[in-house]
Amino acid sequence: MTDLAAAQLTEICRQAEAGYPEEVFGLVIGRRDASRTFRIRPMTNLANRQPVAGPDGAPRDARTAYMMDAREYLTVQDEMDRDGLEMLMIYHSHPDHDANFSRTDRQWALMTDGEPLWPGVTYLVVSVRAGRTVEASSFGWDPAARDFTRRLVELPAG
Question: Considering only CA atoms, which of 108, 95, 93, 94 is closest in space to residue 148?
Answer without folding.
Answer: 108
